[in-house]
Write a structure and sequence with these properties.
This protein is mainly α and 310 residues long. The chain is built from 13 helices and no strands.
């Protein structure tokens, strides 16, 4: 009887262990199924993300497939077109190089004393100065075509939204550069020359070298031409998210001081040219800020929103 009970208890233990093993196997199967589902979901999400990335990269896929050598070849093609355009305009103007220099030197000649004139201290200056001016005028007149070639090279890598912004920026930058050069010739140059000649000592007869005057005038033209691009630069910085309208408004006083500091460095050492550059720089900055307020709608910061709610 006791032997029978022992056998029965052993059988019960074996049965219990078998049931326990079956439960463990079933739990492992459930865990494996859950793991497979999680892995499948991760694979599906990864595939979805990859598909989305491919769709977003499809816009630039032609450029991405191009090797660097083809980019360089394309850039060389545009540079050759720019050089050819400048050369054609130069050849058309080279016959009028002396007339162009006379037009440039008229503001200085009008300020010189009656018995004074411009001089050439180098034997090649009589030839090289008008030629240098003609090259500058050719590049100046070809500026729209130059910017068009730059646009043709960059445009394939831009999105449609960026292209819509870039075209008005391109046109406005051309107009502002021309306006800056015209402002420097018709307004600034006469005032600066009059200031310098007026303060000449009585025993000194002003006789300016033609090369020195050309370098002085071209530097002045470039400074004012680039300065008039401030509205475009301000707008681009805000559109790119580098700065915000609010931060520029808060730092306005420092920007105004910076305008006068830059004008003092890049202009000749006189107060007239510094004021004639610093004041337009400040006004052009205000113009760019005003255009940004009209064209860009900024979302209020979380701090301002919480303050208004309170």
């Amino acid at each position: 009887m006791s032997l029978f009970k022992r056998k029965k208890s052993r059988q019960e233990k074996i049965a219990v262990s078998a049931i326990t093993d079956q439960d463990v196997i079933a739990q492992e199967a459930i865990d494996q199924t859950t793991f497979n589902k999680d892995t499948l979901n991760q694979d599906t999400s990864a595939t979805t993300n990859t598909t989305q990335d491919k769709k977003s990269d499809d816009v630039l896929s032609p450029l991405a497939d191009m090797p660097i050598t083809e980019h360089l070849i394309e850039l060389r093609r545009h540079l050759i077109k720019i050089c050819v355009a400048v050369l054609i305009i130069f050849l058309g103007l080279v016959g009028y190089s002396r007339e162009l220099y006379n037009f440039l030197s008229d503001p200085l000649v009008a300020q010189l004393p009656a018995n004074s004139t411009m001089i050439a201290t180098d034997i090649t200056s009589n030839f090289m100065a008008p030629i240098r001016l003609t090259v500058f005028v050719a590049a100046f007149l070809a500026m729209p075509y130059i910017l068009y070639q730059i646009w043709s090279f960059v445009a394939p890598g831009l999105y449609k939204k960026e292209k819509k912004i870039a075209i008005p920026v391109l046109l406005s930058s051309i107009f502002l550069f021309y306006a800056g050069v015209a402002f420097s010739y018709f307004i600034v140059l006469k005032g600066v020359l009059k200031f310098f000649i007026m303060f000449a000592p009585q025993n000194v007869l002003p006789m300016t070298d033609i090369d020195s005057y050309l370098s002085f005038a071209l530097k002045l033209f470039m400074v004012f031409g680039l300065t008039f691009e401030i509205p475009v630069v301000t707008l681009l910085l805000i559109l790119a998210g580098i700065v915000s309208i609010q931060s520029l408004e808060e730092k306005r006083r420092y920007i105004i001081v910076g305008c006068f500091a830059v004008a003092a460095v890049v202009t000749p050492p006189d107060g007239v040219s510094m004021l004639m550059l610093a004041i337009p720089m400040w006004l052009l900055f205000e113009l760019g800020l005003f255009l940004a307020k009209i064209l860009i709608k900024e979302e209020p910061s979380p701090t301002l929103v919480s303050t208004n709610k309170e």
